[in-house]
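Risk register update: the risk of archive-format incompatibility is retired. Evidence:
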Amino acid sequence: MCWSWGAARGLPDLLVLPGEPVRLEAVPATVGPSALLAEIKGPTDSLRDAQKVWLHTLLAAGAEVEVWNTRPKP
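Archived output:
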């Protein structure tokens, strides 16, 4: 496989490393003890094709991957 920085386009925004469970003021309210990759999207944002490819590839490889949609706190 040939790697370049261009291939990094679409990788998830956040890697949560394994550790003690943490309670968040959000949904989901907890993050589990295993590694998690999260793509974070704002209210007007949507997944791009490169992001969809990475998410599918990571899920197929057995990674825990989520898309988190952010909203302003009321």
